[in-house]
Amino acid sequence: MQFDRSTYRISDAGTGIRNWLLIAGVGLIASAAGAFVDPKQFFFSYLTAFAFWCTLALGGLIFVILHHLFGSTWSVVIRRMSETTMRTMPLFAVLVIPILIGIPWLYHWADPSYVAGDYALPKKAGYLNVPFFVIRTVFYFAVWVTLSILLYRASLKQDESYTRENAKYMRTLSAPAAILYAVTITLASFDWLMSLDAHWFSTIYGLWFFSGAVTAFFAYTTTNVVFLFRHNILKEDLTPEHFHDIGKLLFAFMIFWAYMALSQFLLIWYANFPKETVFYLARWSGSWRALTLSIPIIGFAVPFVILIMRITKRNLNLLAGMAWLLLGMHYVDLYWNIMPNLHTETVVVSWMDVATMLFIGALFRWYYLRLFTQHAVVPVNDPKLGASFSFVNQ
Amino acid sequence: MEATERTTYGILAQFDGPDKLIEAAAKMRDKGFKQWDVHSPYPIHGMDGAMGEERSRLGLMVAAMALLGGLGILYFTYWTSAVDYRFIISGKPYFSYIAYIPIFFAVCVLLSAFTAVFGMLGLVNSKFHHPVFYSDNFAKVTDDGFFVSVLAEDPSFDKVQTKTFLEEIGGTNVEYLEGDD
Amino acid sequence: MLGNPGLHDVTETIAGLAERKETPIWWWVAMGISTPIAIMLLAVVGYLIWNGIGVWGVNNPVGWGWAIVNFVWWVGIGHAGTLISAILHLLRQKWRTSINRFAEAMTLFAVMCAGLFPAIHVGRIWVIYYMFPLPNQMAMWPNWRSPLLWDMFAVGTYFTVSLLFWYTGLIPDLATLRDRAKNLTRKKIFGALSLGWRGGNRQWKHYELAYLILAGISTPLVLSVHSVVSTDFATSILPGWHTTIFPPYFVAGAIFSGFAMVITLAILARIVMPETKNYITMDHLEKMAKVIMVTGLMVGYAYSTEFFIAWYSAWEYERFAFINRAFGPFAWAYWIMITCNVLTPQIFWFKKMRQSVVVLFIASIFVNIGMWFERFVIVMTLHRDYLPSSWGYYTPTWVDIATYIGTFGLFFTLFLLFLRFVPIIAIAEVKAVLPHAQPHGHH
Description:
The complex is a heterotrimer.
Chain A: E1 2-4, E2 9-12, H1 16-37, H2 39-70, H3 79-86, H4 89-95, H5 97-101, H6 103-106, H7 112-116, H8 130-160, H9 164-192, H10 205-230, H11 240-271, H12 274-282, H13 288-307, H14 310-314, H15 316-338, H16 351-374, H17 385-389
Antiparallel strand pairs in A: 1-2
Chain B: E1 7-15, H1 17-31, E2 36-39, H2 47-51, H3 58-84, H4 101-123, E3 146-151, H5 161-168, E4 172-179
Antiparallel strand pairs in B: 1-3, 1-4, 2-3
Helix pairs in contact in B: 3-4
Chain C: H1 7-19, H2 25-51, H3 66-90, H4 100-121, H5 147-180, H6 184-193, H7 201-234, H8 246-272, H9 282-312, H10 316-327, H11 331-343, H12 351-354, H13 357-379, H14 398-421, H15 427-432
């Protein structure tokens, strides 16, 4: 890739980006084959992959909203990256369709005969029914896509020329956006993931989902910053101070996620209440136990010790390594939430897990890079850009 | 008291504002002084670089003590609840390590905080009786004064030359830190 | 900061307030009100210890009454102080320097008031050392599994760390008072307290790192403290108490009420000490109003999620607990809570409201009332349990009321002493963020 520092644009994006489409195509063919071979496995794999990549876009959306609300300086450098991640939302509005098709395979509450014989599900049928589920999902994406497009468009407008009105517009839009976001992401987590076991409930689930999304998004952004740096983009502008700061935030978001996960676990473990403990008991059987243990150890303890050190945050390889680890563990976390509903006894890794990840992931990456290379890599007219480039950690 | 009995402990020079101070600090560093310091009413960014100071080791001390405290309380909770006095409460295992997380966390934090504060107090080498306090002008350091001090213990200290040097690099009110005790 | 003060002006204004010879009338008046109330607290606590906690309104089925409500309320108020000092420091929000000292003092005094309640609630306060892991005559150790013990560790740690943080921040300012002291006694007192501080860069570099570390550990600490407090309820199996959102929900509520208290106190300080207006500006108040609005929405989010999941759980006890909360005998408390906590902060969507001192003051009081009722509503879940024959109602006695009022006496007495004798704004920190304080090319 060729980078023009005077305009902060990528003058020549190269042809590499198109290769992602090729990979996505391979993933698509494999996934489609899977859908015919074993639809149940396919839909579960697809839901996991979808949740993984969609949470990146969701994390980007809230990050942009919070950036405008707080008016912070340090985040200006990664603002365009966040906006690009957020702007992939229309892709997910399309990619969610297979999940809507897969409702009968994914969700036991969609089976009328099962619900009729159940002690609890008829009481919540007013919420958990197919039409309402579809309407809600359409509504979530209507909100997210609209917000992404409006915020992204306003940001590009700022690239042409800075106006106070435009900056104010983004800030004003962000306030109601944050509220809409909180409601939709919570209900989305209840709908898509929590209702996989329609008997189980946890009030913190929305916050857990949100914290995972933000952490994963930030890990993704960290890998992108390193990616740009390696391609000599922003090389003169990004200093160890920026990496240090990004490392600190990655660390903070990881703790935020761990706090949510621990709150849920500790309270359910302590109260030892059968209605709730089923969730953890199911994940304590067979090889699920190893996966369960890997989440606090590899997903928290190890990166905690490594990221707390100053050298990690100033070493690109280590920092990128930690970001990749956290991204990987975000997938494990989602997998661990979703899959025990399908493979109740033990972990069964399927080739469809890989195929669906390849399909959605490669498509996402292609979309992301295509958008990103078309515009300036930083918001060039943001008044705080200079301060953001030159800032120094304490 | 007669002037001849007074010992010179060092020299103090005042500077006009943070910009002058940071320039002076760089010159002091290049001159090779060791037992010297700059004094200001608030911390000045970039001064460590100008003085050639290394980073504080406090972080390591805190991490070590947090680890020690964490392991200590982990063992202590284990020993008290699973070894010394076994007792089943609310149907939970003797060593209910999950329920000990809040205690573990609190102890780690407590030890870190103590280490941060008392470690800092140790490292800053505060003394109630320090040569700079011989200067009456030095009272400004907590108000609006910026100073450079050189102690007589410094190998390159010379009563006359150092004073001249401090004046050359822009110091005003250059005075000997002298006391009779 | 308003008026663009120089370094010396900052010293003069803030240190001058702590040094003034003439104690203002308002201070004596305020002291004259709060000290007798604090003394009354002593008397009431003595009465309670003498008679036992039967003098409170607690009984079956409501075994926890005002004491736990007051405890959670006061701890929650304390949290804003730590947040302002710690999190805003980490986020490099420079505006915090004007209010952090003040807010940290509020934390300390609020936690003192809070700590009183569990201590006297144990009933036999003379054997409170059982709570500590000390070898005793029964060869028993504390029950580490108990959330009440976690509480003791969390709140104890919180108080200690807050005190250390506060004192660390004070050291350079105490040195200022030392250097400005006019008589030997003051010089000796502040000389001793400032620990020989000489403002050397070889000192500042350790000092700044220590401060950063303290901020770094205080941030998770403050989140953990109210999370632990929430586990007092949430580890039980009581519908309405046992719900997984409690830890973050309590933390949001704590920030909410704490910032409201900071606004209340800051406005009072601006009125009685007009000198502080250049430091505690309308801009600060407006920022805090925004925090209140955001955290108000967060608690609103928690209330709705709880309600929704109670319905979604399809479990009759869970559903009953929440319907009873909103429409049962304590519905009045529930709707006070909703009005004060969810509706009131919405006025801060309007800039005019955020900039009106009167509106800010009234709203901050409302929020404090609302947050007290939030804990009251939660505790009162007890009044109707699984067995209708054991249902009851809770009424506080005069001892409950007097104890609660008494803690205000204690709080304000301590706070007034702080206002009178300590630099109420962090002098060194304010100086460091003045426009020309840092060398050019470095910031």
